Amino acid sequence: LQVTVCRLRTHQWCFILFNVVLFHALLFGGDLLEEYFLRSLPITYTDAKILKIREKARELDMEPRKTNISKSYTISGSEACSNQEVFLLTIICSRPENRTRRDAIRQTWRNMTSIRGYALLTLFALGKPSAETMQQEINKESQKHDDIIEGSFLDSSRNQTWKTLMSMEWTVTFCSHARFILLMEEEVFVSLPSLAEYLFSLRTHLEDIYTGRVIHQGEPDRDPQSPGFVPLSQYPDKYYPDYCSGTAFVISQDVARKVFIASKEMPVSVPPDVFVGICAKNAGITPLHSSRFSGKRHVRYNRCCYKFIFTSSEMHTLPKTKNIFSNGSKEQHVCLQCSLQFLPTFRLIPTAHEGSSSIVPLKK
């Protein structure tokens, strides 16, 4: 009987040890494997058009635009980034009427303003409201928090691409020394410690960074009754090029400049995240997929997941930030579920090179 008990205990310990090893392999190995395969994709062919865009981006001089701020912005926020070296600039695309949501962000994850001594700056990008009373409220909010950029265009569902383009223009004009830029929607929670640690790890490759949850073979909306309708005259191809989901994605400063230059020859009738993806392609930039960006999925809160992921949608369902990164116990089983949820999925597709193929993530 004692031998049987010992054997059972040995089997139990082996099972526990196996699960611990499996958990760590899934948690940390999956994303590294995913990024390894995607970094191995063929480099985009740099034709004359691409080289021209990249050269213009290197020579870009935004000083003349600083003298005519009122043409592009009703609230410029031009001083927000002027006196500090910014490691990560976060620009949140917000609607004028969503003051409550902006305040929730200010009171939670936006509280983190530095990491390892490097500055983190978070701003809100808005268009103009239709009501003057709302504009007055936004003016007061801006004076209080000094974290709002407001474009001179009307904020509407059809003008969200203009908002993204304005964010790019503002970045290269007033915050050209920011090393990385995170563009995101206001419904999203960001784990700044996790994201910053990942960006710190990119010591040898600091250019052409365009990373997020990559959408593969996205199709234009051809329904004339749909708010997102894209006519063939504006985009004739069957599929969009690969692009990062607009819920949240990170670019390096040089990519912001290249996208800004490429945008001059692009119609703005496509969705904002697709717009950035097309501009990136025209500039010879390939998006890098990371499953740690949740896309439009909401990741159920637990400490392990929120120490690993970069973003999750539906921020209003989360606890306060001060609880998110505290130490926890007895959550190993939940962590295993989290790692399984974020384990990447691939399929093999042909590449531009005849007879070759590449591994890319399945479209979510």
From TrEMBL:
Residue ranges crossing the lipid bilayer per the database entry: 12-33
GO terms of molecular function: hexosyltransferase activity
A cellular component annotation (GO) from this entry: Golgi membrane
Keyword Lipid metabolism among UniProt keywords: yes
Subcellular localization: Golgi apparatus membrane
GO biological process: lipid metabolic process; protein O-linked glycosylation
Keyword match Oxidoreductase: no
Protein's membrane topology: Single-pass type II membrane protein
Pathways per UniProt: Protein modification; protein glycosylation
InterPro entries: Glyco_trans_31
Domain of life: Eukaryota
EC number assigned by the record: 2.4.1.-
Entry keyword set: Glycoprotein, Glycosyltransferase, Golgi apparatus, Lipid metabolism, Membrane, Signal-anchor, Transferase, Transmembrane, Transmembrane helix
PANTHER family per the UniProt record, alphabetical: BETA-1,3-GALACTOSYLTRANSFERASE 9, BETA-1,3-N-ACETYLGLUCOSAMINYLTRANSFERASE
UniProt record similarity statement: Belongs to the glycosyltransferase 31 family.
Name this polypeptide is given: Hexosyltransferase
Native organism: Crocodylus porosus
Gene: B3GALT9
